[in-house]
Amino acid sequence: MIKRIERNILIDYVFRFTCNFDLSASIWVLYLISKGLPLWQIGILEGVFHMVSFLSEIPTGAIADILGRKRAMIISRVCSTAASGLMLFSNNLWMLALSFALSAWGYNFLSGSEEALVYDSLKQAGKKDKFLKVSGRLEMILNISQSTSLLLGGFLAEVSFLYCYLVASIISIISLIPCLFLTEPIRSSEKSSKKAGFLVQIVTAFQYMRNEKRVIEILLSYSIIFTFYTISYFYGQQYFSQLGFSKDKIGMIMFFVGIMDCIGAVNSEKIARKYGEYAKEISIMLIAIGTLCVVTGNTLIGVICFGVMGFAVTMLYPIQSEALNRIIPSEQRATIISANSMIFSMYMLVLFPIAGIIGDTYNLKVVFIGLSLVELALGLLYCLMKIKQNKGKQEIE
């Protein structure tokens, strides 16, 4: 049984690669623009994604904790495949909105369940101290997959958006195969959680978060960093397009960002050991400076800074994941991890459309400068709060 549980990690490496090999990721904004949608409608569609995600994260996490993480991952792949196919054939805003909703469910069912399955597999095998390293490897694999697919997607989109989304749908189906070979880890309260029911599972998770203030702090502070980077990343496609870059060259830029992401993921454990509690503050300052430098007017500096942003934010994912999983119980793990994604969706639901409106009204330079200034303010605020906390600890000692 232990060998089968340990095998989950290797299987998840394969799964992480296939489920993130999305050829459409670098060109979906351009694809929607080619259909005649203005930036504000694209912002609304992204808002639909995050609204559905916001409403569904906790319920899907609870389902994963009650019915099993493996089943939730299978449901995720079915939803993602349907979303990709619908995106291919949709020609009106309502059908596109449905596609984004299905895509959100694909993300929801996966966001808490995969991470919970990996952590509990390591825990059952007596190797949970390896989670930060495994999480870093998973982030590296994710970014290798995404950067490769971004590059290929950019080239394929130059030929046809149709081919790009058709291949994306096929790969989404293939990603279902590794899920079938996973082994569900044993949880101490698995039977009782099934008997307790859906609502009790959610209430119990919220009660735990309310009593454990550190969990709320981790969820709120890291999610805002990821939100600012995500906005910059998505609108960066259109920004480079406005500078005259073709879709294949934009794909190459995103490929470079993916390489920087991999470097950040691989070094996340070393950075966490070296800088510890200040890793978050260092990251957000790098993201803020990088966001500002993207719009300096120098294309080379802009591309390099885009890569620096990717490095900074990607090294934070394993650090946040390890910090969160260390203090939450297995029986609520997927539900609470899903709360993390829910908070991210809440931020995106509000900020992504606002950024789109500002981009349409003024230009995307204004968006990047605004994001940078807010990021700098948050970085300074987090630093001051950290210094105050450390002084308080020293006084107590």
In short:
The protein is mainly α and 397 residues long. The chain has one domain (2-181, 196-396): MFS general substrate transporter like domains (Growth Hormone, Chain: A), CATH 1.20.1250. 85% of the residues lie in helices and 0% in strands.
- Roughly how many Å is the radius of gyration? 20 Å
Category by helix and strand content: mainly alpha
Largest sheet: none
- Low-confidence runs (pLDDT<50, min 5 residues)? none
Please report which band the strand proportion falls in: under 5%, 5-15%, 15-25%, 25-35%, 35-45% or over 45%: under 5%
Structure report:
It is a single chain. The longest helix is centred in the last third of the chain and has 33 residues, at 364-396. The protein has helices at residues 2-19, 28-34, 39-67, 69-89, 93-111, 113-124, 131-159, 161-174, 176-179, 190-196, 198-211, 213-242, 247-266, 268-275, 279-294, 299-314, 316-325, 333-361, 364-396. The model has no long low-confidence stretch (mean pLDDT 83). The protein has one domain (2-181, 196-396): MFS general substrate transporter like domains (Growth Hormone, Chain: A), CATH 1.20.1250. It has 19 helices and no strands. It has 397 residues and is mainly α.
